[in-house]
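QA checklist item 7 of 12: single-chain prediction sanity check.
[x] sequence parsed
[x] length recorded as 187
[x] structure emitted
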Amino acid sequence: MRLPKPLTALLLAASLGIAGPAAAWEMRGTQAIVLHGRDGSQVRIGTVTFTPQGARTGVAVKLDTDKFQDFFLSMKEFKCLPTPDEVFCHVPYPYPNPASVTGDDLAWLEHALLFFYKLPSEFGAKLWNGVYYRLTPTEAGLVGRPQAVDLNQIGAPPADTDTPPYGPAERSDIAPEARWFGTLTIQ
């Protein structure tokens, strides 16, 4: 008896242990935001809620402030995570923005996850030590790799609030191991 080709292919794939296409992760509902430490630790710092908005998807980031410590730096309070090597502080994007993304444009979510670092012995906010996590979609969620930015650039409102200020020209790659939190994930 001769089997149809599609059935033969399916049986062959199953016998070889070949999996079919995996379901792609979708930007839906509420997902966890996790920073991954150099020592293998994971800190769940909050959530992002994805809401359909026509061709785009709305994003709302909510930090779990219990995970952070309050630091008063340069006359401003910051939510920070002290680590053995550095103090890592969240910087909320301070201006109105669309707060929406698409599968290939995650800039406004990336702008909601801005940080800076400083040495524990240093005084004041070191806004030129900004960290921007460039997000990439994967089968399991979004993975962010750190890039360097100067957060002083957002000290004044942008002329166009619909355009993210940190485009590719304003960011530079850094080695993930250079920062205590070398990876950020959303899953």
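[x] summary fact logged: Residues 25-186 form one domain.
[ ] second reviewer sign-off
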